[in-house]
Every structure is written in structure tokens, then in C-alpha cells.
Write a structure and sequence with these properties.
The chain has about 110 residues and is of the alpha+beta class. Helices cover about 25% and strands about 30% of the residues.
């Protein structure tokens, strides 16, 4: 069970920072009403530190779940977030569970 997840908010067009904030805030409102989350960190605008982010990402929400013994499975929570944010016009949300395992660093050469 993951401890965290990332929600990428995609939007098309030449959106101003204020338009991006308004759209991402609608997703944030849905997420903040989820009782199974410990914390939510929202970033709006270009994601210069994340080289894997798509060009149309207008914001990212990083969410941290409460203890796994006191909540539903992460996949059920994330599915609910996707369902509740799908009707928001002008955006598409992409939910990614925290990846566990070794990092993707360079291979070891002996």
C-alpha cells in the first residue's frame, strides 16, 4: 500500500496563471474533502524540476494518506478522486500512486 500519490492536472490552451489556479483549486477542493488524507501539497504552473511532466500539466497535487490500517485501499481513494474530478470542464486529471522499489539511477558497472 502506498503512503502517497501524485495528481497531475492537465489543461490545454494558453491559460493565465489565474486560470490555472482556478482550475487546480477545483481539484484541490475535491481532494481536501477526502478524510483519508494526512496532507495535500499543491503546485500551480510549470513543473521545471520534474523533467517527466507533460507540457500541458498546469498543476500538481501531492497527497499523503493516513495510516493504511485506518483507511480504504489507495486504489479506491484514487479512483474516487478521478471520478469526482472528471466532470470539471477544461481539465483532465492523472493519478499516479507512489512508486516503491529501487530508484532509476544509473546501472552499476563493475
Amino acid at each position: 500500500e502506498p503512503d502517497a500519490a501524485v495528481i497531475s492536472v492537465h489543461g490545454r490552451g494558453n491559460l493565465s496563471l489565474y486560470e490555472k489556479e482556478r482550475l487546480v483549486a477545483q481539484v484541490e477542493k475535491v481532494v481536501l474533502n477526502m478524510p483519508e488524507l494526512k496532507s495535500v501539497y499543491t503546485r500551480i504552473g510549470a513543473q521545471s524540476m520534474d523533467q517527466e511532466a507533460a507540457e500541458d500539466v498546469i498543476g500538481t497535487l501531492t497527497i499523503e494518506f493516513i495510516d493504511w490500517q485506518k483507511r480504504r485501499k489507495a486504489r479506491d481513494i484514487l479512483k474516487e478522486i478521478e471520478e469526482k474530478t472528471a466532470p470539471i470542464p477544461g481539465i483532465i486529471t492523472e493519478v499516479q500512486r507512489e512508486r516503491s522499489g529501487p530508484s532509476g539511477s544509473k546501472p552499476i558497472i563493475i
